[in-house]
Design brief:
single chain; about 270 residues; alpha+beta; Immunoglobulin-like; 2 domains; 10 strands; about 40% helix; about 20% strand
Length: about 270
Amino acid sequence: MIRKSLLSLLGVVWASAASADWALNMPRGITELSAETYDLHMMVFWWCVAIGVIVFGVMIISLIKHRKSKGAEPATFTHSTTAEVIWTTIPVIILLLMAVPAAETMLRLEDTRNPDVSIVVTASQWKWHYKYQDEGIEFYSSLDRASVEARTKDSGIDPFSVENFLLEVDRPLVVPKGAKVRLLITSNDVIHSWWVPELAIKKDAIPGIINEAWFRAEETGTVRGQCAELCGKDHGYMPIVVEVVEPDAFLAWAETQKTSGERVAASQ
């Protein structure tokens, strides 16, 4: 039993290393709000570092300089009103410095008004369905065939040989650069979570509830994410791929999707 558990753990670590590089910090992202989120994260981090250095520095210096072997005598006072005011006021000021910009960014993150593109994202075990409300385009996005074959037991395929192993899909979500994209996120079965770090979005997909999110990509390219809520046995095989293209390229892609959709409908 122990041997099987260790082998399973090693398999999980191996698959994780094969699918993505290790990262010790959150990405800055390709949107203005993701950059703001990153800056807030780093501001809070360095405040915590500074507080830790000061507090532990004072503790270590006190332990060294005021130890019994140095002849230190214990203090006789019971309390200090001045000290209490100082150690209450300083944390309040620090919290305000953190809270005000964080609240401003959170309000902007929730402002989904006046979108250029609206997409309904519906999760199900274990794929995503995207429906462009104004373009009349909809499709499922699932784990790509190369990853499916490599993850199959006794496939003989080395996962390290598969590009973007477990992080590639057959049909990515395509959006135009510079457009405000609103996502209406829900689920058909259990709770999932639409998570793309470089867009600074992590929203739960809950049956019977529609959660909203938005982003405006400032760079073209491909960003990747995954389902971040344990949703069943194939939870780890539910990636998200977003392709950001120039507006003209998006219009051409949308026209192609409409044409192919009409052909499929006509053949049925």
